[in-house]
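Appendix B. Raw example, untouched.
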Amino acid sequence: MRRSWYAAAAVGLLSASMASWAQEQRPSPASPAVNAPATRSPGRPRPPSGRPSARRFLTQAGWRPSIRGPLFAYPPGYGYRRWRTGEFLPPIFVASSYYYDDYAPLGLARPPVGYRWIRYGPDLLLVDVNSGRIGDVVDGVFY
């Protein structure tokens, strides 16, 4: 009998605290934040137009316009995919024909020893040439 009373009391307290929590989470009708835009993390600056366009990319120096690069041809059996830091680039792309050495005008840092900037379609990847591991990805550099 005592256990069922404790269980009922616990359920009652839990439901009351959940109801008050849910009430706190609802915006008040007078709150101006109802239609306010979502806030962004302080680490990433907002692009000039409020959202990234297809012709801009982000570097440490801020948003920069994409550049028209030479036509990029994927090897047979490969196509575009988004790469992430920590993944391994196939060895066919870790070759001098894919190296991109004109990184300074783009606002990109000089690669550390053992790394190279490699062009992969419209993106530049900072890759460890010994292992193929991707250290950084800059999306949308070329169009």
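End of appendix B.
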